[in-house]
Design a protein that fits this description.
The protein has 25 helices and 7 strands. A 5-stranded mixed β-sheet has the order 4-3-5-7-6, with helices on both faces. A two-stranded antiparallel ribbon has the order 1-2. Helix 1 packs parallel to helix 5 and helix 18 runs antiparallel to helix 20. It is globular, with a radius of gyration of 26 Å.
Length: 560
């Protein structure tokens, strides 16, 4: 009775810890800062147009079709507008929910299948507590690292894709381990992933499952088992209606834009200048998965992936570790092969990395775990120094000239240095006391505190410099715009102006362009030198408002 009661208490502590971690990482002050140019407002405005017009088929931005992505993320944001009103919370809610849902399913999966590599059930004094620790560490690692925190708090399609792909792969493993109807969840989430980002939503989980099936030598068995026909029909039922409808409306224009430019060309050629060397994703994972990345090589090596015969002898339910490894490597290699490279592309492999970390930290006696703990403490020390010196390094953005001064005056980076300094001292103490199992907890507490005390306040300061001035100008435009008066932005494009004014905006890079002069009369946003050029090209001009590095002017061009 006592053991069962103790296990129940441990599990409830783990559940509460996970819930609090997910709240801090994904929902705390989710809508406290404005939409961040350049990409986020594009998604937000296309969704607002759906919400406003009732056209749930074709995404539009600023009066033009937006064929970059399928509709799932737009539908999610538009539904959020119905529930919460038009604003930042609703824009980011699909991303936050996707991250939290994936973390929750991973926690549940690790509780059920978190077997320690190489250990039999009889070798573990209390295997349920070991599984609980693996689930807790894995889920915390999944939530508290920069890559997921950033994209879970950003209103774009990347986190929703990662959530759908991760859920699909976890459902596959549940079906594989139990030969159950979980396979239908695999096909369901593949369909949602395709509706969020297109063919990659099918290619990635298909690649992972094929490589895994070949590795464990069960290709034929799985082909008979995974309900391929029924699952394919389910996926097609989810995806084909929208694709057929939008192709029927827009024809070859949509096919060339979405399937040609945004899918085929992104894989085979450099798009929008997003080129990078072959080792790019090594750096992305190393930095984006901090503070857990120092342990990732050990978490991979401990699985002994070269021991194929060993893994093929294991019961299916004990193969979660090698499944996570194949999940990780398949996505890493796939996007390394792609020519266009972006940090967000490897977001779907982070859950697999976290699962491997959780399994590793559940075995503190392994040498790799000790080395990982030592490297983590070294990393804490490096972060202490880096946090203290950061105010001296930031700057150089002409849009945010006062940003370094404001960060320095706020002392938030000093607070961050204190947090990591305390983490370093505590970690050293735990290592000296041979309490290596608890070093992961220091990572949890320190990174959560750093997020609350430093990261979010710095984001608020950046918003006050970079985005708040544009929101203030947008408020003025909404009250000052006269009938038949054009809204224009010169010299650059900030899509947030469209979202916050809720009006079309003429973007032109040339302040004295004929396109701008043809408007007759316009409210124009730009930097002071651009506004001066536009005023000189007009018959009359008046500066209405100045906000940081931006100005708003009313210009009259026609002589009547």
């Amino acid at each position: 009775m006592g053991s069962a009661s103790s296990h129940s208490s441990v599990r409830w502590v783990a559940i509460v810890t996970v819930g609090l971690t997910l709240f801090i990482a994904f929902f705390w002050r989710l809508g406290s800062i404005g939409l961040f140019d350049e990409t986020e407002p594009l998604f937000a405005e296309a969704s607002r147009q759906m919400y406003k017009t009732g056209d749930w088929i074709t995404p539009y931005f600023n009066g033009e079709t937006r064929f970059d992505k399928p509709p799932l993320v737009y539908w999610g944001m538009a539904l959020g507008f119905h529930l919460l009103g038009v604003g930042e919370w609703a824009v980011r809610l699909p991303s936050a929910l996707a991250a939290a849902g994936l973390a929750g399913l991973s926690f549940y999966t690790l509780l059920r299948f978190g077997y320690s590599h190489g250990a039999q059930s009889a070798d573990i004094a209390d295997k349920q507590q070991t599984f609980t620790l693996a689930a807790l560490v894995g889920t915390v690692a999944m939530a508290l690292h920069p890559q997921t925190i950033v994209w879970a708090r950003t209103g774009v399609s990347d986190m929703l894709l990662a959530g759908c792909l991760g859920a699909a792969l976890l459902c596959f493993f549940w079906g594989y381990a139990q030969a159950s109807r979980w396979y239908y969840g695999f096909y369901l989430f593949i369909g949602l992933a395709v509706l969020d980002k297109g063919p990659v939503g099918l290619v990635i989980p298909g690649l992972v499952v094929c490589v895994f099936a070949a590795y464990v030598g069960q290709i034929r068995t799985l082909l008979k088992e995974i309900k391929l026909l029924q699952g394919t029909l389910l996926t097609l039922l989810l995806t084909l209606p929208w694709f057929i409808t939008i192709i029927a409306i827009h024809g070859q224009t949509y096919i060339d834009s979405f399937f040609g430019y945004h899918n085929y060309e992104r894989f085979t050629d450099v798009v929008n200048g997003h080129a990078a060397p072959w080792y790019f994703y090594f750096a992305v994972v190393a930095v984006g998965f901090l503070p857990w990345s120092p342990g990732l090589p050990f978490a991979i090596v401990r699985l002994r992936p070269w021991s194929i015969s060993y893994w093929r002898r294991q019961p299916r339910e004990k193969q979660l570790g090698v499944f996570a490894l194949i999940w990780f490597l398949s996505i890493f290699c796939f996007f390394t092969a792609a020519v266009t490279k972006l940090p967000s592309y490897v977001l779907p492999l982070m859950p697999a990395a976290a699962i491997m970390i959780g399994l590793m930290w559940a075995e503190p006696r392994q040498r790799g775990t000790w080395l990982s703990a030592v490297l983590s403490v070294v990393f804490f020390a490096i972060l202490t120094i880096a946090s203290y010196l950061t105010p001296n390094w930031i700057g150089g953005d002409p849009v945010m000239p006062d940003f370094p001064t404001l960060v320095r005056e706020s002392q938030v980076m000093l607070y961050g240095a204190v947090i990591w300094g305390l983490a370093t001292l505590t970690g050293i103490g735990l290592l000296l006391m041979r309490r290596v199992r608890w070093v992961w907890a220091i990572s949890l507490i320190a990174f959560a505190a750093f997020t609350l005390v430093t990261i979010l306040p710095v984001a608020t300061i950046a918003d006050s410099q970079r985005q708040l001035p544009l929101r203030r100008l947008a408020e003025t435009i909404r009250t000052e715009q006269q009938a038949d008066e054009t809204i224009a932005m010169v010299g650059f494009m900030k899509p947030s102006l469209v979202f916050y004014t809720q009006r079309p905006v003429l973007y032109t890079y040339n302040p004295d362009s004929e396109q701008l002069q043809a408007t007759g009369q316009a409210l124009v946003v730009g930097h002071p030198d651009e506004i001066e050029t536009a005023i000189n090209a007009s018959r009359s001009g008046e500066i209405l408002q100045t906000e940081e590095t931006y100005q708003l002017a009313r210009l009259i061009f026609n002589p009547e």
